[in-house]
Structure formats: structure tokens, C-alpha cells
Amino acid sequence: MKILIIEDDHNVASYVAKGMKEAGHVSDTADNGKDGLFLASTEKYDAIIVDRMLPELDGLTIIKTLRGAGNPVPVLILSAMGDVDDRVKGLRSGGDDYLVKPFAFAELLARIEILGRRSTVLTSQHTETRLIAVDLELDLLTRKVHRNGQSIELQTREFNLLEYLLKYKGQVVTRTMLLEAVWDYHFDSQTNLIDVHISRLRKKIHDQEGNIIKTVRGAGYIIEDSL
Question: 61 CB contacts (<8 Å, ≥6 apart)?
């Protein structure tokens, strides 16, 4: 699994990241709420571990923001605030689990892996064969694309690029994510490969309603359900 750890205590963050690596998982870390929310919003994670008390932006605000944007990523709250009211507030804010510090890493790992498996099962149960945004429709079975009722011919790479953007509709997709998913490049290339293909794709799916693929400056691209 790929896990995001948002924790301002360097010792705790390092301890958890090291344990996750030894368990075979990949993790990113952020030591403040602002950077944590940015990563959670722009990268794809299987689960997030977040402290409640963080610099710049608190953990519950991060969770509420993600849920408000329709991001269903499982979130485990890791906090020294362990009263019943604190735990209830955390869960009601959109958290999926709550673990009180000090904690045993074995328990944290078990809880995170359970959340990850649960998320995978729910995703597989709701696999869609059609991806839709505004008047644009992509059919995964027939591999046909239509916008406003008009058929659009796409090359294989263009289709895969549009499919990935639509699967993460409403979320910012970074160039790195596109390189890894569509081109299978596992590095941050400085090439303009992404920009060239996005430009071609835009020209093909553009109509009088306007461009549906929006550029998020300094971050990546996003497809939303409104123009």
C-alpha cells in the first residue's frame, strides 16, 4: 500500500514510516497540515495516518476538506487526545479509525491494513464500465468516447490518458501520476510529453461547451463535473 503520514513529531513520523517500509508498504510524510492536505489532494494513497494537532492546519480540517471534495481515502487519526468525546469527534469528522498515543506499531499496522483491504473491496464492488463528466462519456468495454452525442476517435494513449483523468474526476492528477500510470515511467521526467498529449486530447474532445480538462498551475490537471 501507499500511505501518507501527516505528523509533526519527527520521531513518531520516522518510527511509523520505518515500520511501514519493513512491512512492505510505501509511505510519504508531511510535518504540517498544509503540506499534508496538498499531498492528500494531489497524490493517490491507499490510506492516510493523520495527527489531530498539526501546525498550519489541524487534522480534522484536513479530513473534512478531503471528504468535502469527495475523496474517500481511508483515514486513521493518530492522536494523544484520547477522551471519548475526542474520538467521537474525530470519527464524525470523516475519520475511519482512531488510535490513541502512545500506541503499539503492530496495532497501527493491523488497523491500516484492514482499512486498505476494506477500501480495495469497496472499490472492486463498484467498478464502473462508463466514466462520465458533464457531456463527455467514455465506455471502458467498447473503448468508445462520445461528447455531446458525437463520437470521438482517440489513439490508445489518448484513451488511456482520458480514462485515468476521468477515474480521478474531481481530484488533481499530477504529471508524475500520469507518467507512472499511462507511460509506466517511474521518475519525474522533465519532458513535455504530458503537455503535448494533453494538448492533443483537448483538441479532440473540445466543442462549443469548452475545455473539460483544466490545468492546475504548478500541480497538474483535473476534470470536474462542471465547466
Answer: 33
| Residues β-bridged to residue 139 | 130, 144
- For residue 4, the SS3 value is strand
In the chain, beta strands by DSSP E: 2-6, 26-30, 47-50, 75-79, 97-100, 130-133, 136-139, 144-147, 150-152, 173-174, 213-216, 220-223
Tens digit of each residue's pLDDT (9 = 90 or more) over 98-140: 999 999 999 999 999 888 877 655 554 445 678 999 889 999 8
Whole-angstrom Cα distance, residue 112 to residue 183? Answer: 30
Residue-wise pLDDT tens digits, 19-45: 999 999 999 999 999 999 999 999 989
d(CA 167, CA 159): 12
What cell was used for 194?
Answer: 504530458
- How far is residue 104's CA from residue 116's CA, in Å, rounded to a whole number? 19
